[in-house]
Design brief:
alpha/beta, 2 domains, six-stranded parallel sheet, elongated
Amino acid sequence: MIRVMVIAASLVVRLGLSSMINNHPQLTVVGSTSDLDTFTKEFEQLQPDVVLLDFSSNLPSAWAKLPLTSEPQILLITEDIDSIDLETGLRSGIRGILPSTSTEAEITTAIEAIASGLIVLHPDYLELLSIKEKVVANPVQTLTPREIEVLGMLGSGLGNKAIAKRLQISEHTVKFHVSSIFQKLAVSSRTEAVTAGVRLGLIML
């Protein structure tokens, strides 16, 4: 079972999302709250796999309070997409962004994908991806076909060991490829590398 925590200022929204999740055979709600302060206190105890956050106007300080924990897996539902800094969000633990008009199937599928290590973005939000000026202004060095392959696997949430096994190469070689990717894309983390790869059209999520 995938453990989900729901955060929504509105009681109606909170109950609706919780009911929707509990109706799914692979998902269960381990807790729900109206604010992020309560969440930070309960996170360690509840240990959710995915946090479903309704980013409404009633949560004006939500963005400033991320990241909340060391590795939160957050699915953000919002109707105010203009207020989202996607690059900062990805660094803060957000692994998915969906519009408030999303269907039950879209939300539950996104939760399952995020729990599996994937990043989920609604097609309308891809334009939010922005890379550091030095990357855009100075086209990155060309990645080799193998590096693009490794980058795609990073986007799928695979670790070095899993990538090595899939490509039938050593883990040391994978680390070398990842380091080269970071250098060529002028990034310092896997999330930034994936974000840059999507923005530059090297990979698709």
